[in-house]
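Subject: sequence -> structure tokens, single chain

Hey, anyone have a minute? Need the predicted structure for the following. Not urgent.
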Amino acid sequence: MPHVLVIDAPDQRAKRCQELRPRARPARDQQDGVVGRKGLERIIEATYVDSQDCPRLRGLRRMEDVVASHKASGIFRPQSWWIAAREGQPVGCVLVNDSAEDKGAAELVYLGVGSAHRRRGYGRAMLRHAMEQARRRGRKRMNVAVDSANAPAVRLYRHEGFRRTDQRDVYIKPPSPGP
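Reply:
Had a minute. Here:
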């Protein structure tokens, strides 16, 4: 399903991000071979650890529902879903779909970095890779929704040229326990 974004560089801080040179290839998982849904679920779940991205949502949905929700956001493009890896180990993922509403836009569905790899430039490298790939496919814009309390993500998007165009309140109703 996703492709791997191999990060070939020493583990540097974000200020040295220009040294991170991603290249894409089909994703492999030590447990499943080619990364499938379960492998992607494990990687996304690992990026949730100590994340500031919607912490009150954690644990309310099963990971298979999270992945299904990401697929349903816009027009699913599996070739635009990447797992970032360094020395064969996943460090995060970036999932991009086409916008269903705006043919000239891509939707950044999810960007997450594992807690042990944060503040080393991986998120920025994945974002830049995703933007470049969207540009090559003729997309003139990239849309992203971000938790306004997620200061590191807001800072990253602003630094990379994103600007706020809308603000929405999110209401959550936890699922009822089953029978």
